[in-house]
Amino acid sequence: MSILSSTLKKHAIVYPESDGLPLADNTTQFRWITTIKGGLDAVFFDDANVFIAGNLLWYPVKDDKDICVAPDIFAAFGRPKGERDSYQQWLEKNIAPQVVFEIVSPGNTAGQLTEKFDFYDRFGVEEYYLYDPQHEELDGWLRKKKRLTKIPDMKGWISPRLGIRFEMPNGELRLFDPAGVEILTYGEVARQREDERRAKEQALQRAEKLVAQLKALGVEPEA
To answer: How many CB atoms lie within 10 A of CB 42?
Structure first.
Protein backbone atom coordinates (compact mmCIF):
# COMPACT_ATOMS: atom_id res chain seq x y z
CA MET A 1 0.00 0.00 0.00
CA SER A 2 1.40 3.39 -1.00
CA ILE A 3 1.83 6.23 1.49
CA LEU A 4 -0.91 8.17 -0.36
CA SER A 5 -3.33 5.24 -0.21
CA SER A 6 -2.60 4.77 3.48
CA THR A 7 -3.24 8.46 4.16
CA LEU A 8 -6.51 8.45 2.21
CA LYS A 9 -7.67 5.35 4.05
CA LYS A 10 -6.92 6.97 7.40
CA HIS A 11 -8.80 10.14 6.46
CA ALA A 12 -11.75 8.09 5.22
CA ILE A 13 -12.61 6.89 8.71
CA VAL A 14 -16.21 7.68 9.53
CA TYR A 15 -17.16 8.16 13.16
CA PRO A 16 -20.85 7.17 13.53
CA GLU A 17 -23.18 9.67 15.15
CA SER A 18 -25.30 6.93 16.73
CA ASP A 19 -24.64 3.64 18.47
CA GLY A 20 -28.03 2.34 17.36
CA LEU A 21 -29.41 2.36 20.89
CA PRO A 22 -32.37 4.44 22.09
CA LEU A 23 -31.86 7.60 24.11
CA ALA A 24 -33.68 5.94 27.01
CA ASP A 25 -35.35 2.61 27.75
CA ASN A 26 -38.32 4.06 29.64
CA THR A 27 -39.95 7.30 30.73
CA THR A 28 -38.21 7.34 34.12
CA GLN A 29 -34.75 7.13 32.61
CA PHE A 30 -35.63 9.74 29.98
CA ARG A 31 -36.98 12.11 32.66
CA TRP A 32 -33.79 11.90 34.67
CA ILE A 33 -31.54 12.32 31.63
CA THR A 34 -33.39 15.42 30.44
CA THR A 35 -33.70 16.89 33.95
CA ILE A 36 -30.01 16.58 34.78
CA LYS A 37 -28.89 17.71 31.34
CA GLY A 38 -31.25 20.69 31.43
CA GLY A 39 -30.24 21.53 34.99
CA LEU A 40 -26.56 21.61 34.08
CA ASP A 41 -27.36 23.74 31.03
CA ALA A 42 -28.98 26.25 33.37
CA VAL A 43 -26.14 26.18 35.92
CA PHE A 44 -23.52 26.87 33.24
CA PHE A 45 -25.68 28.98 30.94
CA ASP A 46 -23.36 32.00 31.20
CA ASP A 47 -20.11 30.02 30.90
CA ALA A 48 -19.20 29.73 27.23
CA ASN A 49 -16.50 27.19 27.97
CA VAL A 50 -18.54 24.41 29.52
CA PHE A 51 -20.05 21.96 27.04
CA ILE A 52 -22.96 19.84 28.28
CA ALA A 53 -24.24 16.88 26.27
CA GLY A 54 -26.72 14.05 26.55
CA ASN A 55 -26.41 10.69 24.80
CA LEU A 56 -23.59 11.97 22.57
CA LEU A 57 -20.96 9.50 21.34
CA TRP A 58 -17.52 10.20 22.78
CA TYR A 59 -14.51 9.01 20.77
CA PRO A 60 -11.35 9.32 22.88
CA VAL A 61 -8.89 7.79 20.37
CA LYS A 62 -8.23 9.18 16.91
CA ASP A 63 -8.48 6.73 14.01
CA ASP A 64 -10.33 4.13 16.08
CA LYS A 65 -14.10 4.40 15.67
CA ASP A 66 -14.68 1.24 17.69
CA ILE A 67 -13.54 2.83 20.95
CA CYS A 68 -16.51 4.93 21.95
CA VAL A 69 -19.34 5.32 24.44
CA ALA A 70 -22.44 7.51 24.70
CA PRO A 71 -22.79 8.71 28.32
CA ASP A 72 -26.31 9.63 29.39
CA ILE A 73 -25.01 13.07 30.37
CA PHE A 74 -21.52 14.54 30.42
CA ALA A 75 -19.83 17.87 31.05
CA ALA A 76 -16.61 18.97 29.38
CA PHE A 77 -14.95 21.97 31.01
CA GLY A 78 -12.68 24.04 28.80
CA ARG A 79 -14.68 23.29 25.66
CA PRO A 80 -16.98 25.79 23.97
CA LYS A 81 -20.70 25.40 23.72
CA GLY A 82 -22.05 24.49 20.30
CA GLU A 83 -23.52 21.76 18.15
CA ARG A 84 -21.64 18.51 17.58
CA ASP A 85 -22.34 15.23 15.80
CA SER A 86 -20.06 13.45 18.27
CA TYR A 87 -17.37 14.34 20.79
CA GLN A 88 -14.07 13.54 19.05
CA GLN A 89 -11.55 14.18 21.78
CA TRP A 90 -8.57 14.98 19.51
CA LEU A 91 -10.64 17.86 18.06
CA GLU A 92 -11.42 19.12 21.58
CA LYS A 93 -7.82 19.90 22.61
CA ASN A 94 -7.71 16.29 23.84
CA ILE A 95 -9.92 17.22 26.80
CA ALA A 96 -11.90 14.27 28.11
CA PRO A 97 -15.32 14.93 29.65
CA GLN A 98 -14.60 15.52 33.33
CA VAL A 99 -18.04 14.61 34.69
CA VAL A 100 -20.32 11.78 33.58
CA PHE A 101 -23.79 10.68 34.70
CA GLU A 102 -25.44 7.35 33.95
CA ILE A 103 -29.08 6.54 34.73
CA VAL A 104 -29.65 2.82 35.23
CA SER A 105 -32.59 1.17 33.47
CA PRO A 106 -33.93 -2.37 33.99
CA GLY A 107 -32.33 -3.35 30.68
CA ASN A 108 -28.79 -2.55 31.85
CA THR A 109 -26.74 -5.60 32.77
CA ALA A 110 -23.98 -5.69 35.35
CA GLY A 111 -21.55 -6.38 32.53
CA GLN A 112 -22.59 -3.27 30.62
CA LEU A 113 -22.23 -1.08 33.69
CA THR A 114 -18.79 -2.56 34.40
CA GLU A 115 -17.67 -1.90 30.82
CA LYS A 116 -18.78 1.72 31.08
CA PHE A 117 -17.04 2.17 34.42
CA ASP A 118 -13.82 0.73 32.99
CA PHE A 119 -14.10 3.06 29.99
CA TYR A 120 -14.51 6.15 32.17
CA ASP A 121 -11.74 5.00 34.48
CA ARG A 122 -9.38 4.38 31.57
CA PHE A 123 -10.03 7.57 29.62
CA GLY A 124 -9.80 10.16 32.37
CA VAL A 125 -13.25 11.00 33.71
CA GLU A 126 -12.81 12.90 37.00
CA GLU A 127 -16.27 12.35 38.47
CA TYR A 128 -18.71 9.55 37.68
CA TYR A 129 -22.24 9.36 39.07
CA LEU A 130 -24.53 6.34 38.70
CA TYR A 131 -28.19 6.58 39.71
CA ASP A 132 -30.62 3.68 39.76
CA PRO A 133 -34.13 5.16 40.19
CA GLN A 134 -35.81 1.76 40.33
CA HIS A 135 -33.80 0.57 43.34
CA GLU A 136 -33.21 4.11 44.69
CA GLU A 137 -29.45 3.73 44.69
CA LEU A 138 -26.89 6.45 44.06
CA ASP A 139 -23.16 5.84 43.69
CA GLY A 140 -20.32 8.17 42.88
CA TRP A 141 -16.62 7.96 42.10
CA LEU A 142 -13.92 10.62 42.22
CA ARG A 143 -10.55 10.36 40.51
CA LYS A 144 -7.71 9.94 42.99
CA LYS A 145 -4.18 8.85 42.13
CA LYS A 146 -5.19 8.32 38.48
CA ARG A 147 -8.10 5.99 39.34
CA LEU A 148 -11.80 6.46 39.97
CA THR A 149 -12.34 5.86 43.68
CA LYS A 150 -15.71 5.20 45.32
CA ILE A 151 -17.20 8.12 47.26
CA PRO A 152 -18.09 6.67 50.70
CA ASP A 153 -21.26 8.69 51.28
CA MET A 154 -23.20 10.51 48.57
CA LYS A 155 -25.68 12.11 50.98
CA GLY A 156 -24.98 15.83 50.89
CA TRP A 157 -22.08 15.32 48.49
CA ILE A 158 -21.07 18.41 46.49
CA SER A 159 -19.49 17.84 43.09
CA PRO A 160 -16.06 19.51 42.96
CA ARG A 161 -16.51 20.38 39.29
CA LEU A 162 -20.22 21.13 39.06
CA GLY A 163 -20.85 22.60 42.49
CA ILE A 164 -24.19 20.79 42.65
CA ARG A 165 -25.33 18.98 45.81
CA PHE A 166 -26.75 15.47 45.92
CA GLU A 167 -29.48 14.52 48.36
CA MET A 168 -31.59 11.37 48.69
CA PRO A 169 -34.69 12.21 50.79
CA ASN A 170 -37.12 9.29 50.84
CA GLY A 171 -34.80 7.40 48.53
CA GLU A 172 -35.29 9.63 45.47
CA LEU A 173 -32.45 11.71 44.08
CA ARG A 174 -32.63 15.46 44.52
CA LEU A 175 -30.06 17.82 43.01
CA PHE A 176 -29.41 21.41 44.09
CA ASP A 177 -27.47 24.01 42.14
CA PRO A 178 -24.58 26.01 43.65
CA ALA A 179 -27.08 28.59 44.95
CA GLY A 180 -29.04 25.89 46.77
CA VAL A 181 -31.98 25.94 44.35
CA GLU A 182 -33.39 22.52 43.48
CA ILE A 183 -32.95 21.35 39.90
CA LEU A 184 -36.45 20.59 38.63
CA THR A 185 -37.99 18.99 35.57
CA TYR A 186 -39.13 21.26 32.74
CA GLY A 187 -42.74 20.69 33.78
CA GLU A 188 -41.99 21.60 37.39
CA VAL A 189 -40.19 24.76 36.29
CA ALA A 190 -43.10 25.74 34.04
CA ARG A 191 -45.58 25.15 36.87
CA GLN A 192 -43.44 27.18 39.29
CA ARG A 193 -43.33 30.08 36.84
CA GLU A 194 -47.07 29.91 36.33
CA ASP A 195 -47.66 29.94 40.10
CA GLU A 196 -45.38 32.96 40.43
CA ARG A 197 -47.19 34.73 37.59
CA ARG A 198 -50.57 34.11 39.22
CA ALA A 199 -49.30 35.28 42.61
CA LYS A 200 -48.03 38.54 41.08
CA GLU A 201 -51.31 39.00 39.23
CA GLN A 202 -53.32 38.49 42.41
CA ALA A 203 -51.07 40.88 44.34
CA LEU A 204 -51.57 43.52 41.63
CA GLN A 205 -55.35 43.04 41.73
CA ARG A 206 -55.34 43.46 45.52
CA ALA A 207 -53.24 46.60 45.19
CA GLU A 208 -55.56 48.05 42.56
CA LYS A 209 -58.59 47.27 44.75
CA LEU A 210 -56.95 48.97 47.72
CA VAL A 211 -56.18 52.06 45.63
CA ALA A 212 -59.79 52.23 44.50
CA GLN A 213 -61.02 51.95 48.11
CA LEU A 214 -58.68 54.73 49.25
CA LYS A 215 -59.80 57.00 46.45
CA ALA A 216 -63.44 56.31 47.37
CA LEU A 217 -62.59 57.60 50.85
CA GLY A 218 -61.03 60.72 49.39
CA VAL A 219 -57.48 59.58 50.09
CA GLU A 220 -54.85 59.90 47.41
CA PRO A 221 -52.59 56.80 47.61
CA GLU A 222 -49.55 58.85 46.49
CA ALA A 223 -49.92 60.99 49.61
So the answer is: 15
pTM confidence score: 0.82
Do 113 and 193 have their domain in common?
no
Pair type for strands 73-77 and 50-54: antiparallel
Q: Is the dihedral of CA 80, 28, 159, 43 positive or negative?
A: positive
**Do 212 and 194 share a structural domain?**
yes
Please name the amino acid found at residue 168.
M
CA dihedral 153, 127, 157, 25 (to 10 degrees): -80
Answer whether residue 144 is part of any domain: yes
Helix (H) / strand (E) containing 195: helix 186-216
The whole-chain average pLDDT of the chain stands at 89
For 40-83, the pLDDT digits (tens) are: 999 999 999 999 999 999 999 999 999 999 999 999 999 999 99
